[in-house]
Every structure is written in C-alpha cells, then in structure tokens.
Amino acid sequence: MEDSDLTVYLRRSLAFIRDAEWRSIRHGELNLALHSIGVFKILRRLNAPAKVQLAGLLHAVYGAESFSSLRPSASPAEVRLMVGYDAERLIDAYSRVEARSLAIVALARNRGFLADRFTSKPLTISDEDLTFVIMLLYCNLIEQYVRSKRRGSELFLRQGLESQPSIYGLAHILGQGATQLADDLYSI
C-alpha cells in the first residue's frame, strides 16, 4: 500500500469514527474512539502492515464481543471504501472470533478452537490473516491493559484473559518487537 493510499484511508476512517459518534461510546474509562486510535498507534509502533494498522483503527466497526450494545455501524462495502479490501477482510474475521478462542489458538497453535461466534461453524482463515487477527487481539488487549494500568484500575486485570502472562504469550508469537513493546508499555 502506498503512503498516499494510507493517508486517504486514515482520513476516511477518522472521519467515520467522528461521524459515528464513537466518542460517545464508553470503553472502560475512556471512549471507543480513543481506544481505537490507541490500538492503531500500537500497531503502527510495531510496524504492522498498513492493512493491519487500518483494521486496528476500525476493529469494532461490525460490533464487538464485549459490547453487546454495539451494533455494526457500517456495511462491508462502506468499510472497504474506508480501509481497503484487505483491511476489511481482517476486521470481518476479527469480529467473528471470540477473544478467548483466538487466544487459545494463538497460545496452543491449535486451530480446532477457531469458530465463527455467530454461526459456531469453523472459521476459514489463511495462516497470514490468522497471524494478523491475533495481532489485532494483542494490540486491543495491550491498549486496554496499559490504559487500565496508567489509571490504576484493577477492573481490567480481573477479567482473566487480559492478564500480563497472556499478553506476553501473544507477544511471543508475534516476535521480538511485540515482546519489547509489551516490556516498554508495562514499564510506564
């Protein structure tokens, strides 16, 4: 993806976040807009491919497992116009998996746990896309964990999956850069 394409997609995505009123949707102690931008920044710091960075920015556009009140706020065609085909495909896959089953797949390297959370059928996804969706999960969790830690909140830490060992386990799969990022962010 060219830098000019990334710039166009970023402008469209940020305008959507503003227009969809994601600032009014609470996400922990902040809002969904700030969380999504935080996920994007972490992916950028990891030098993730542009399609993964863009997917991180709109990872909740089709709703979210942890937000039962959050409904899809754009159609697939609209999302493709905002972030491109490849990023939309990652967002779709991310929205279909349960975080816990994705973490099990990542940590155990057993794809048998990966099912569409809407249909319960096995989810078909390439190995590359699976790695990118795991990266989205990792950055989503790390953003929430660091924000929670900065604010002194223990709520996030009690949720189980989102514990430091799980995040480091996911970071290990993604490579040294992700492990170093976790180290850097935990030291804040």
Structure keywords:
two-stranded antiparallel ribbon; mainly alpha; 188 residues; Hypothetical protein af1432
Round the Cα radius of gyration to an integer and report it: 15 Å
Broad structural category? mainly alpha
Number of domains: 1
For the biggest β-sheet, the strand order reads 1-2
Oligomer: single chain
The CATH architecture: Orthogonal Bundle
- First-to-last CA distance: 33 Å
Please state roughly what percent of the residues sit in beta strands, choosing from under 5%, 5-15%, 15-25%, 25-35%, 35-45% or over 45%: under 5%
Question: Could you walk me through the main structural features you see in this protein, from its secondary elements to its overall organization?
Answer:
- The protein has 188 residues and is mostly helical.
- It has a single domain (3-186), classed as Hypothetical protein af1432 (Orthogonal Bundle).
- It is built from 9 helices and 2 strands.
- Helix 8 (164-174) packs antiparallel against helix 9.
- The chain is globular, with a radius of gyration of 15 Å.
- 38% of the residues are buried.
Please outline what is shown here.
With 188 residues, the protein is mainly alpha-helical. Helices cover 61% and strands 2% of the residues.
SSE layout and pairing:
Blueprint: H1 3-19, E1 26-27, E2 30-31, H2 32-45, H3 50-57, H4 76-83, H5 85-96, H6 99-108, H7 127-150, H8 164-174, H9 176-186
Antiparallel strand pairs: 1-2
